[in-house]
Amino acid sequence: MPAAGFPALFHVKKAIRKVWRILPPGVRLGIVRATQRKFTFSAAVFVVDEEGRVLLLNHVLRPFSGWGLPGGFIGHGEQPEEAIRRELLEEVGIELEDLKMYRIRTIRKHVEILFTAAPKGDARVLSREIIELGWFACGELPGQIGKTQREMIERLLGCRD
After folding, report:
1. What is the 3-state secondary structure (H, E, C) of 67-95?
2. φ/ψ bin of 100: left (φ > 0), alpha (ψ from -120 to 50), beta (otherwise)
3. pTM: predicted TM-score of the whole model, two decimal places
4. Which end of the chain is more exposed for a tag (fewer CB within 10 A), N or C?
5. Could you tell me what percentage of the chain is helix, strand and coil, using 3-state DSSP and rounding each to the nearest 5?
């Protein structure tokens, strides 16, 4: 759902997204990496509601796909738990309950710390970085989501072994 009261902003985000999509994935990734330190760290979270659905965000500048887990870069001196709580409040206005580390993975020069959590509050788009959000059950995941994230979500939700 687009940010309430900002239909023009929604269209600007979609236009930026189209331009971003024209760039080859390697160039997009290079732009992201060039704006960060040499070795990057981020936190992401599988937010699963009482109905067993996972929260996904359609992000403006995601390098390889649109939809994905909520999260972001960890700031200097910030702990991963603090970073993921901050990102969720900034981007969709929810707090996290029962936050637990799920796994850590490395992708080239990047470390991603993954958590699981339950939402506290109603999610809504609050950040210019987010086009829309959605809650997705097994078999309903959007087409524009990375293969690895799709597999992890399906495993976590019990859609696959």
Report:
1. EECCEEECCCCCCHHHHHHHHHHHHHCCE
2. beta
3. 0.75
4. C
5. 30, 30, 35
Amino acid at 79: Q
Give the CATH number of the domain where residue 14 resides: 3.90.79.10
- 6, containing H or E segment: none
CA 115 to chain CA centroid, nearest Å: 12
d(CA 131, CA 67): 10
In a domain, 2, yes or no: no
What pLDDT digit, counting tens, does each position of 57-100 carry?
Answer: 998 876 566 899 999 999 889 999 999 999 999 999 999 999 99
40-47 and 71-73 strand pairing: antiparallel
